[in-house]
Amino acid sequence: MSRRSEDVTPEYEDAPRARPKRIRPRAKQLKWRRAPWFGLVFIALVAGVLNALGAGKQHPASSSPASPLVVTPSPRAVVPAAVAGWQAVAGRDGSYAYDVPPNWRPSPEAQQRWAGITLVTSAFLGDCGRTPPAGAGVATEPLADLDAAARKAATDVATGAYGGTPDVPPGTSAQVTKADGTAVPARVVVASVTSAPTGECAAKHALVAAMAFGDGSGASGVVVAYADTDRAGPSVREDLERIVRSYRFVPAADRGTTTPPPTTYR
Fold it and tell me: Which parts of 127-219 are beta strand (E)?
């Protein structure tokens, strides 16, 4: 009877005898509390790298301050005042001018814009918010009728500057002197307006004087002066009328130029 393959006993070759290995105890893990010097060295190393890269450094401010900005204004036309003790506010080339009291500030380069009208060759009294206590300027109106042109200018400024509905009584006659000495007719109105004040600088009562001039054949020139009656002084009405009535055309011989001093902005 033959033997089954699974009954065969496997045979092994004698292997050389292995030498026993010497087992060393496992090294103990280094702990932070037992090696504080390692943490200090690591921190010092990181700090050194950051310092080398410039991280965290406070750079000293420049020892030389920024140079101030100096602005030199453009030359300004100057003409003699027609009202004794007042000062003239001249147009760009000095061909026309009007006068304001000595405590006003001529600003001929400034423009004042409201709906329906833009005033140029301006002057102001004081400074408070968007609307100063008083101001003046020159414009044109596309109306040949002098009374209608003066009333429109006064109404537009009163509504734009003070937000109220003005009362505009009938105007009075005036005239404007031309550079050659002749005169053209003019019309002056003085409107009053009462508004509800909504801010520190808002006017409760105001006056607006407007004078329109021309020969009646086309657009009219207008000069307007306005003021908060509570802050512009007791003679405000007389001052406003005198301002607009002082408008005139200036002969070439009376025109000059000056350059205001530079303004430094730091």
Answer: 134-141, 172-177, 183-194, 205-213
